[in-house]
Design a protein that fits this description.
5-stranded antiparallel β-sheet, globular, alpha+beta
Amino acid sequence: MTDWTPAPEDKPPLEAPEGPETPFRADLKQAAARKRSRVWAWILGVLAATLLLGLITAGAGAYYVWNTYLKDTPQLPSRQALFAVNRAPGIRFEDRYGQVIASRGPRYGRRITVGELPPHVPRAFLAAEDRRFYQHGPIDVPGIARAAWVNWRAGRTVQGASTLTQQLAKGLFLTPDRVVKRKLQEMLLAWRLEQVLSKDEILELYLNRIYFGAGTYGIDGAAQTYFDKPASQLTLSEAALLASLPKAPSRLALNKDMQRALARSRLILANMRKEGWITAQQERLALEDTPQLSGLALQDEGDYGWVLDYATAEAVKVAGQNAPDLVVRLTIDPVLQREGAEAVRQTMTTEAQRSGASQAALLSLGTDGAIRAMVGGTGYGESPFNRAVQARRQPGSSFKPFIYAAAVERGVLPTDIRVDEPIKIGDWAPENYGGGYAGPMTVEQALITSTNTVAVKLGQEVGGAAIGDLVRRFGITTLPPAPDLSVALGSYEVTLLQLTSGFQVFQQGGVRVEPYLIESISTQGGHPLYAHQPPVGERRVYDIGNASIMVRMMQKVITDGTGKRAAFDRPAAGKTGTSQNWRDAWFVGFTPDYVTGVWVGNDDEKPMNRIVGGDIPATLWRRFMVTAHQTLAIRDFDWLLPDPVVETQPDPRNGYYETLAAEFARAAAELEDAGAPPPEPEPGPPTTPD
């Protein structure tokens, strides 16, 4: 017989010994209830306070966001107006004689509905921009989170999360700036759009208003421009190619970078297959079918490109963004525009290796300020950047006439003597090109030879405020009110248009005329909108007697000085200029008929091979001016006044100065015989080799 001992868990429970029963205490239960009540009241109070604080904080934050970012969000127009809002006009440009130069501005085609298009056309755009367009609202929150994760892992922005509606809102109402304000306004406008339009209507509006490059808006306009067919006839390969453009329409425009657009279209076709919108066979056939561009897409505006860019911006300022299609007559002379562009192109091709320069610009004005030629570079197709009006560069010694003009206004005469000698202003010690000093010389001779030290002395005599006042009167607005003395050597940047227009004050005997490019604007139906009107009465900004002095001195720059290569069989005046380290070379000059400016250099400011203003710029200027004057009679500046007669006795120190000058010349000759090299220009404000 085996003993069995129950496991501990099998033992019967022990019963508690009976004892006296605890008496019931109602007062203790009430106290516990009151305690629990106070705890809950405290918890609820904290929650209420937290909620209230959160609401206040959220309200304050919303108020701040609204007033800082969203208050000036554009309002949506009516549903119908959405198809025309901010629609820029198309423009037909004519030259000064009324001959058509080019047609420009947006090409819109006709308004289409999604139902008119083959299904693969809208699907191509959804595959490119927003495959989940019909599944999410105006903002794709999961898409934002996914893009944020991808970008965080990549360490840079590689994926965007804007919905198609957001892209539409940005394109219609906002700028492309990547700032918080624009992004928040984009989201608000996207939400508003989806309150008034269905998804199909938003897609339709997108397809009709999106930009496709080459001045083309809307799917039908793009189909007509690139493939010479309506949007309803687009093939799958053509649709995918067009869908590749809205991401970067200017860079990927088919007439500029077809290969990159084709590469993106292949990704779009792959996305369409993944979504089940096309079969593998349709994808393969589309990849084998490379679209052919129409002649309209390949149309070249040639040498008018810079002119049309500038004129388009000016015309829209006058007529407004929502103007009807326009006819704009320009001041451009087709012969001079063609000659200017050809002269720049041929000269820079011939001189590129010798000069170390890659670019040049030319601008020519008629006597009334009308722009007759504007050449912004060596080729618009290679670079649409307009160096005649957009580039700001140091003018070097071509700015000296304004310093001399300020000095003449203060009573300085061409026959006055100034000493070319070492000069130091603070830590700045300007030198002449090539070193050396000529001693006493007339003010006129200093301008003819472009002597730096004398220009600085004259600038010091009149002061920066007087120089700043004069150049503003002459139309140069980029200088401060009181520039420092380096202005005497052209250290402050200007545009070729400003500099050339400033020289026109001398040509016009002290009268300022505003340069202009647009003669008139009308609708294509013939309704006049604008006509250039010359100002009532002359705008005199400089005394005619002082202007006569300046023109006579500047004539000798061409006949006897640094600008000899510009001389041709006409009375002409001008000034050479070269900035520090030969980065910029200029010649600006005028006859009684035209004022023309030329700049030569490199976009990256790389120094040239010691090219000066009296070299390529003067030669290029002469070539252009010979053509410009070939049908004009020779005439002089008929308004010039006689040079002033010096009424004072000769300065008794002149004999001393002449002796000193001879000593300087002798010392210079000895140095030259000894083979001493001229000192290099010091860094700092530029010295000017002309």
